[in-house]
Amino acid sequence: MFLSSHYAGKYMVPQFEAGEPWKKVFGPIFMYFNSAAYGNDPLLLWEDAKIKMMVEVQSWPYSFPASEDFPKSEQRGNANGRILIQDRYISNDCVIASGAYVGLAPPGDAGSWQMESNNYQFWTQANENGFFSIRNIRPGDYNLYAWVPGFIGDYQHEAVITIISGCNIEMGDVIYEPPRDGPTLWEIGIPDRSAAEFYVPDPDPKYINRLFVNHTDRFRQYGLWERYTELYPEGDLVYKIGVSDYRKDWFFAQVVRKIGDNAYQGTTWKIKFELDNVDRNGIYKLRVALASATLAELQVRVNDPNSNRPLFTTGLIGRDNAIARLGIHGIYKLYNVDIPGTRFVKGENTIFLKQPRCNSPFQGFMYDYIRLEGPPTPC
What we know:
It contains three helices and 22 strands. With about 375 residues, it is mainly beta. Strands 10, 12, 16, 19, 20 and 22 form a six-stranded antiparallel sheet that branches. A hairpin with a 5-residue loop joins β13 and β14 (about 265). The longest helix is centred in the N-terminal third of the chain and has 17 residues, at about 45-60. It comes from Gossypium mustelinum (Cotton). Keywords: Signal. Pfam families: CBM-like (PF14683), fn3_3 (PF14686). This is Rhamnogalacturonan endolyase.
């Protein structure tokens, strides 16, 4: 099934204008069958298949397809460069974007590649020195996009890149300045577009999939969202900066609480932290990166959980279904919330993260990373 809304919702379904022509090549499809004599270790078949896969990857694009819709290697182009990070709160010099994901996708806004399925994309991963090489790109117009594990936000090169047959474009150094206003006061999680680093509970024994027992992908178990109600039957999650550990104390998904056979209620998580000093004239910045959202709403309040109007709300967001589909990430979203210094007090403060939508057990979101920044400091 090449195009489906089953996992990622409507975002992954191609959208067309009335009468718009469209065609896209899927394939060629390669199927490999191997065998082993009775009594031999069957895992050798798996190792052999992986070797064969690597050979075929190196052979792409194949030269045998006769269709004009499948350009040969010499009819495609390449793009090369190096990606660096500029963040003065980390270093005065540029930092190498080791392991960055770099790709060419149809022109659009930063991050728009996530929802693009009508056309073609070509991606690679930068090496430990930040160098990348994107090979065998179909002719056409593209933007260069990137995201870097360990840093929030999306990079987009400002100029459209035109690929023609046989071209070899040298991009040189591209500099990504991730969102940043001030110094980090505290952070929760790892900015990697996944909720996998947070606490994933053991599955309910009646749902357990034994293929994933003692597996690194602990989230691949049905019904994990129901464990939240069992672990927090009355009050919601409270996380204390400097005391709590996100690997043990931050549930992997903020979901609803079940309160009856078919009844649910929204949840409000608390982040408690100390401030030794408060700049009451300054603006603090709360960065909230979501790894997934499904028919949910994020409301942010500061030191007053009962205020009628939240300081910030996303409104209704998300249809990527990752919670119900046993995924650990869906469509990445980054929200930047200005918090006036007058909202804080010297001593203990609390940020309230409320998800009020509660019509089904699957409504909620997964956090990727949360950071509170202080007001900007002089250069």
